[in-house]
Amino acid sequence: MKQKYFNINASVVNIYSDPDFKSAVVTQGLLGESCEIMDSKDDWFNVNQWDGYSGWIHKHQGIVADKTYDANLTVFEMDGIVTKKNGKTVIRDLTFGNLLNGKPMNGGFSITLPDGEKGWTGTLLGRMTEQPTRKSIIRLARSFMGVPYLWGGKSPHGFDCSGYIQTIYKTFNIELPRDTYQQADHFKESTINMEQAKQADLHFFENDGKITHVALAEENGYFLHAQGWVKEESFDSSAPNFNSDLKNKYACSVSMEPILGT
Asked: Kind and range of the H or E element at 111?
């Protein structure tokens, strides 16, 4: 049987544990993402995402297709819109990380959405060609400060802790697993201690022996993470933003040198 795809057609959509809006949100998908359809039930599709995560998505949030959406541009602004080509009617909102098929036109971009609808946007779009460095990763991570925490969140509308880390690295074409414990396991051969961590390395924290939280290391004991909202805190008890709870729950750090090369 030929593989079918669910091409997400809204800026951010929830993906659920069961084919029911009342079930738990397990993660999110973004506009332009193409997911493999694994099963269906009533108005729902069970989909498999690029990171191997699976869940249920409602039919109204995308398009069933025989092939993946031909995206060639990424949204690099926190928010934007697509209008009809007359510029008067909004047909889609946009957020950071959305994928679009488009080409330059009239100081912006002519867009074809996953459902074939055509429009125009002046939102900043492009392709990530910059080689990631520790500084560029931190610069991007800091641009999300203040974004609220949202269980399952993967966008500037709301992040959970692992979605925040995954989104940052995915922007630089580095694919990480979705969940915190998966990220820790993925880098288990690169474990270091807190004092060895450089900026853009990862810190992991545990509850009852299980990895439950992740943060992005900065210099001098500071770190960025999504807890309540995306914020900067510190392991240093003399710092005004010291987080004693996380210091007590600290499990390990991992070096990103195998990926970043330095």
From this structure: strand 108-112
Of the chain, the end-to-end C-alpha distance in Å amounts to 45
Q: Any idea which residues carry the catalytic annotation?
A: 161, 213, 225
Alpha-carbon gap, residue 163 to 151, rounded angstroms: 9
Name the pTM for this structure. Answer: 0.96
Strands 154-155 and 118-121: unpaired
User: How many angstroms separate the CA atoms of 101 and 152, rounded?
Assistant: 26
Rg of the chain, C-alpha, whole Å: 19
| 134-260 CATH fold | endopeptidase fold (from Nostoc punctiforme) (3.90.1720)
Q: What are the distances in angstroms from CA 45 to CA 10, 17, 41, 183, 227?
A: 16, 11, 6, 27, 31
Give the side-chain half-sphere CA count within 13 A for 259: 21
3-state secondary structure 32-55: CCEEEEEEEECCEEEEECCCCCEE
Domain residue ranges in the chain: 5-65, 73-126, 134-260
**Cα 86 from chain centre:** 32
Per residue in 190-215, pLDDT (tens digit) is 999 999 999 999 999 999 999 999 99
pLDDT tens track for 30-88: 999 999 999 999 999 999 999 999 999 999 999 999 999 999 999 999 999 999 987 78
Q: Which CATH class is domain 73-126?
A: mainly beta
